[in-house]
Amino acid sequence: MVIGGIGGIGVLGFRHIDLSSKVLGLLLIAEVAIVVVLDIAVVGQGGPEGYSTGVFSLSTITSGSPALGLMFAIAGFIGFEATAVFRDEARDPERTIPRATYLALAIIGVFYAISSWAIVTAWGDGGVVERAAADPGSMVVETTDIYLGTLAADVLNVLLVTSLFACALSFHNVLSRYYFNLGNTGVLHSKLGNAHVRHASPASASLTQTVISAALMVVCALAGLDPVLEVFTWLSGIATVGIVALMLLTCAAVLVFFRRTQVDTRPWQTLIAPGLGFLGLAAILVVLVQNLPLLMGESTTLGVAAGVLLLATLVAGPVLARSRPATVALTDSNLEA
């Protein structure tokens, strides 16, 4: 199944983005629809303890490991910034890219918040932790079985698999376009910046990402790592810390850029918003770094190794920037929509 999934993602990623968007759109509609139906059913019937009020209690929010909760909450938003990566393939990027970014943030935040609250309500504030600790993997499916019946639970099981495929395809498309841009700017090999003549896709970058994904899956399988408790948990934790660090640097870059160039002097866009983002992300990054070893199963060695890897990656950026050739300007001729 894994090999078939990687192959299917590789084929879709190699083709024009329209094909991937259609597949992702259909899967997303189906996945969101069944979760919305479950949310409505829980709200309509209530839970064993009525409706959850834990979200309004500071003691509940800060109990357990709030840092890990924060980490996974941020991980749920990873990818919203990728709208800018598809700029060259958008028909009207000046209008659609900002709208898509804000809309993605709003939908993700509201959808996750309501759905999480519904699951807690379904089991009650007093029983949800015990149920999650017993078997977190089957919790949502069992909730669906209770509120919507066995058929809906079976459908949800299928959609969980397709959602993993959709998620992997989304990351594949985004990473391919990062490789494409880095190839065009001379950071990576220039061949990664080649676009397919017929499909107008970052074909070389897509093939590279497919090979890397397959190789990583083989390494993880040979190492005997648990797909959920180790591969997903460790890598998502590292990725979350890395993304927060990059967003923090982006906020700093926005502040410096507009102060230097004065191409835009609107206070909210050039000072207030990036300033607030910088302060918030800095605080979050400190909390995440402090708790990274906890995510690694209380392994200090793994936590330190992850921190060193992230730090080395950040340091490598300025080194590459100084050693690479002059930046190549991206134009619509590189990759046409």
Helix content: over 70%
Count every beta strand, where a strand is a DSSP E run of 2 or more residues. Answer: 0
Main beta-sheet annotation: none
As a whole number of angstroms, the C-alpha radius of gyration is 22 Å
How is the secondary structure organized here?
Blueprint: H1 2-14, H2 17-45, H3 58-61, H4 66-75, H5 93-123, H6 128-134, H7 139-148, H8 150-184, H9 203-223, H10 227-261, H11 267-295, H12 300-323
What labels describe this entry?
337 residues; mainly alpha; globular; disordered C terminus
Task: Write a brief caption for the model.
It is built from twelve helices and no strands.
Walk me through what this model shows:
There is one protein chain. With 337 residues, the chain is mainly α. It folds into two domains: 1-224, no CATH class; 225-337. Helices cover 74% and strands 0% of the residues. The protein has twelve helices and no strands. The chain has helices at residues 2-14, 17-45, 58-61, 66-75, 93-123, 128-134, 139-148, 150-184, 203-223, 227-261, 267-295, 300-323. The radius of gyration is 22 Å and the shape is globular. It starts with a helix and ends in a 14-residue tail after the last helix.
